[in-house]
Structures are given as structure tokens and as C-alpha cells.
Here is the input.
Amino acid sequence: MYDAVVVGSGPNGLAAAVTMAAAGHSVAVLEAAERPGGGTRSEELTLPGFVHDVCSAIHPLGVASPAFSRWPLAHHGLEWIHPDAPAAHPLPDGSAVVLERSVESTASALGPDGRAWRRLAAPLVARWDELSAMLLGPLLRPPRHPVTLARFGIRALWPATALARGLFEGERARALFAGLAAHAILDLRAPLTASFGLMFAGTAHTGGWPMAAGGSQRIADALVSYLASLGGEVHTGWPVESPADIPAARVVLFDVTPRQLVAVAGDRMAAGYRRRLARFRYGPGAFKIDYALDGPVPWKAQECARAGSVHVGGTLGEIAAAEAEVARVATRSGPSCSARSRACLTPPGRRRAATPSGPTATCRTAPAWT
Here is the structure.
């Protein structure tokens, strides 16, 4: 009998398994697919030798994770690679605004809004260690730094549109913040959406927005390797369709979606909890296009070539209108896209052909609720 079994080998499931194994418990992870990783997988999706990330590609919260920073994942093959700039945001006039690692460098390119960007970002950077530990840690106890959290919350509670228009006068700064906040995948007029913009600004100016050398699969591989060193096990090709498929264990954790959990163990749940899970409404759908290119992306705004992520969404008004259409389950005429290029992340002296890849474009569409 295991102390714990984890169903699902996404990064959350693997992190839970590592945490328990590090505490001395016997742990097994069960994964239906032939490779572990869930959303942190990489495959040759276009041409032979071109490695693409199946889902996540850029990992600001990976490098900021309190858990990842404690574990010796570098000794298990994980290497973070940083682009020259975390992100760029092209605008309809052919220019682009760049989110730099430095608060000052970002602010200096925003003209009259530079001062407002400093007021927004500098406090995040100054208190980032305290703030990130509270925002990315478990909500099991009162915050250790309540004043720091309260100052963050005053702005985080706002809708992203309201905060951007209240802080900034020009379209460049407003668009930059909108591109960050749009990672919420919510109507940007909704309360709390500003929190996403603040979080991603904070990560950009502190730990950065890196990718894993060799692809996101290396994150899962490092977690699996570290888990094995602690005595844990990972079993792939093991689908779980009912409790009978799970080995005997004192505790079973599921890293799956609500409806998957109901399908597997619904008959063991209280009726009210089962109904709540069955009614879970999934968020907007997304699709991703992977390209294999024979050269750099010919961006009209050359600044975009320095960025690991490019937010192709237009102005604050255009991004907000597009997200509002998605929230209304309407057909969108101008989807927002996030383009990511591995080419700009190849470090000097390393053969780019080792893991060649063109950019990835991820676009959001009307919700795929079923």
C-alpha cells in the first residue's frame, strides 16, 4: 500500500508527489498518456527535429514558484533561458512597446506615462519576495505581511480597464497593461482582472519570463527525476476510469478537471458536492498554431524580435472589446494572439539546430463550453 497516489502527472500533480515524497511518504503517480507532464509537454509537431511545446511555453510563474526555487531541479536537467525582453506589444501604427526586465527601461519608453509605470511597478519589485510567497503559496494561514498584501489588493481588486485608464494617459502604456491582464482570459471590465496585469508585470521585472531549455517537457522530466530520487514512482499508460484502477493507498489526490473527477469517483462523493462539480463551467476555448520557419519572424516593429512573448492584440480598447465578446459567447472578428519564439532564446554558443522551433501563436476564441 502506498501512502499516497496522485492521478495525473501535470506540474501540479508532480509537485504534490514531490512534496509528499520529500516528507518521507511512499508515492505513486498515475498518468494515462505515454509521457508525463500534462500541460508541460513538448513534441515534434511540425517537421522532424522541430520541438514545440504542446501547451505552456513561457513560465514566469515557474521560475517564481516558491516550491520550484527550493527544489534542486537544475541538478535534474532543468535550465531556464531568458530572452532579451520578457514581452513586446505591437500597436496598429507599426510601433511596439517593450516590457523590459528593468522597471526603468520599460518606463523610459512610455513617455509621459513612464512615471505612472514606475509608481505601479517599483513597489511590486521592492516587496516581491514577500508578495510572491503569499500570492503563490497555500491559503492556509493569515498572511505574514498583511500590509504588503493590502497594498497590492487595493489595485488588484480593480477591473483591468479601469486601472489602466486611471493610471495611464497614452495608448502605449494602456495596451501594455492590457496585454498582461488578458492572461486572465476574462472580461477585462470584471473586478480583480487588474491582479493579473500586476502579477505578470511583477514577474517580468523580477524573475523574468523564461522558457525551459529544450522545451517545457524538461520541467516535467526534472520533476519526475527528482521524484524518483526521493523514492517516488511515475506510471504512464495507466488510465484511471474508476476507483478500481487505483492501487491501494492511504490518500488519493487527483490532478484532473472537475468533470473527470466526477466520472471517476462521483459515486463516492456527497450529492451536493457532486452536483457542484458537474455544473463546473469551463472557460474560453483556445487554439494554438505551431510554425516551423527557416528564418526569424519579420516583425514590422523590430523591437518584437528581442521578446520571448509578443502580445498581438492592439490597443486597450480593442483587447477589452475582444475579451468582452468572448465573455458574451459571441463570434469574434479580431481574436487576440500571443506569439512566442524560441529562436530569440537560443543562448550564445549553443547550436540552434539542437532544438529548432519556429514561433507558436495562441489565440482565444468564443468559449468551447460543453
User: Anything to note?
Assistant: The longest strand covers residues 2-7. Residues 242 and 264 are 5 Å apart (CA to CA).
